[in-house]
């Protein structure tokens, strides 16, 4: 189950289908894995606070992933996405907000499933998995024109 919480109404203003976009991308990333994911669509201030408290990085970011403890299963974890950062990145990269949000959700869910990108080999594997999942959704390769890493997920 995917639960989407819309905390910042700017998401609804700029992307009325935001909840549906999140659900579709999260389900694609989960594939056959069963589990619950909560996705909070929030603002830059909230994500900056979370990033500072949990990652010691006092700045807003696009997406944060919080994997659940194994004892919490079937809850896999939580994702938090910042509206302002996501909109700015989508515009800067010449992408639709829907496609960029889909990419960030896929990226975040993969983190909840244990994928990472700390070393080059892991990053290449994770990016390939993202490309494949996004292609199944009809979304172009997000890394084709994007030199920038995805943030703090």
UniProtKB/TrEMBL annotation:
Key word rRNA-binding present: no
Record flagged with keyword rRNA-binding: no
Free-text remark on how the cofactor is bound: Binds 1 zinc ion.
Region annotated Disordered, chain positions: 124-153
Keywords of the record: Cytoplasm, Endonuclease, Hydrolase, Metal-binding, Nuclease, Ribosome biogenesis, rRNA processing, Zinc
Positions that bind Zn(2+): 107, 111, 117
EC number(s) recorded for this UniProt protein: 3.1.-.-
Subcellular location: Cytoplasm
Cofactor (UniProt): Zn(2+)
Pfam families linked: YbeY (PF02130)
InterPro entries hit by this protein: MetalPrtase_cat_dom_sf_prd, YbeY
Function of the molecule: Single strand-specific metallo-endoribonuclease involved in late-stage 70S ribosome quality control and in maturation of the 3' terminus of the 16S rRNA.
Family: Belongs to the endoribonuclease YbeY family.
Protein name: Endoribonuclease YbeY
